[in-house]
Amino acid sequence: MSRLALSDADKMARDWFVHETKSLGCDVTVDKMGNIFAFRRGRKQGFPPTCAGSHLDTQPTGGRYDGILGVCAGLEMLKVLHEQKIETYFPVGVINWTNEEGARFPISMVGSGVWAGEIPLEKAHDLKEVGGDRRTMKEELERIGYLGENEADYQAIPLGVCYRDRLL
After folding, report:
1. How far is residue 132's CA from residue 57's CA, in Å, rounded to a whole number?
2. What pTM did the predictor assign?
3. Over the stretch 84-102, which tens digit does the pLDDT of each residue have?
4. pLDDT by residue (tens digit) across 111-130?
5. Alpha-carbon distance 167 to 159, whole Å?
6. Dihedral sign, CA of 77, 114, 124, 63?
7. Residues forming beta bridges with residue 162, ordered by sequence position
8. Alpha carbon distance 12, 77 (integer Å)
9. How far is 161 from 91, CA to CA, in rounded Å?
10. Measured between alpha carbons, how far is 24 from 107 in angstroms, rounded to an integer?
11. How far apart are CA 20 and CA 93, in angstroms?
């Protein structure tokens, strides 16, 4: 399995994720890094959500279950809440971070790093892919339709907490 960040395979996984979360009643937001935030409303609005998540991209020949485990665990949480008609007090959600593996664009955890204020957006957008046509992250975000309009920033999209399941 190979699902490099911002590839056609990654776009398919992103489209699936957006479809699934919207079908469960989530509000979906995409930021300027292509990070996808799917939030389910709680009884109390105006509070940052508690989230699970990780990433859908993989290494070229590995990481088959690494990041997707966290995304699918969060999605399963949303499904259980939806099917059991459980209304949480505060919002909850799932996040797909962009290029967390760093296999195609050579900085790992770049999507969450930009959101956290550790990596400048311009530096991330200007990263060139390893090999291939040397396209930039911004070019590929535009190509697959995931260059969002929302700021990629923890102040613009605040979280109460984010849990990340990992396979080591």
Report:
1. 17
2. 0.94
3. 999 999 999 999 999 988 8
4. 999 999 999 999 999 999 99
5. 23
6. negative
7. 51
8. 22
9. 11
10. 33
11. 12
d(CA 102, CA 65) in angstroms, rounded, equals 16
Cβ pair 128, 61 in contact under 8 A: no
* Backbone angles phi and psi of 37, in degrees to 5: -110, 120
SS3 track for the chain: CCCCCCCHHHHHHHHHHHHHHHHCCCEEEEECCCCEEEEECCCCCCCCCEEEEECCCCCCCCCCCHHHHHHHHHHHHHHHHHHCCCCCCCCEEEEECCCCCCCCCCCCCHHHHHHCCCCCHHHHHCCECCCCCCCEHHHHHHHHCCCCCECCCCCCCCCCEEECCCCC
Scan for tokens 């109390």, then name that residue: 44
Beta bridge partners of 28: 38
Reference 41, options 88, 73, 76; nearest CA is 88
- CA 4 to chain centroid: 14
User: CA 81, 11, 115 angle in degrees (round to 5)?
Assistant: 70
